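User: I'm curious whether this sequence folds into something compact or stays loose and floppy. Could you predict its structure so I can see for myself?
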Amino acid sequence: MVDQIEYLYSVTDQFHSGTETNTLTVKIFLSGEKHTPLIIDFLTVDDYLMGQLLNSGIFLMNTITNSIERVNINEPKYIQKFILKGREKGWNGGNRMEKQNGLDYLAELGYEIDSLKPK
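Assistant: Here's the prediction. I'll summarize afterward.
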């Protein structure tokens, strides 16, 4: 729930062999609007032991709060932040938007993302 509006979401990831990268995809749907999700892709390095770092949790510096936070995209507080960012960019739940760059979203939220970027 964000502003008394119900949303549903899914989080999936896909390993890209040969590049040692992984794409975590967040799809957020306004309840009842299954054809117009906000789709956010996070193309990151893939950790040999941990896999998709944003799916298992990674410590990132947040320059807005001046603190180190454990970021796990599965936590609802991040989904809420992405819904609000998507709204800022024009998504209302009933309209189509091109896929969004998740690392850009994290950077806009104040996170230092260099450790996540593929080489």
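Summary: The mean pLDDT is 95. The chain is about 20% helix and 35% strand.
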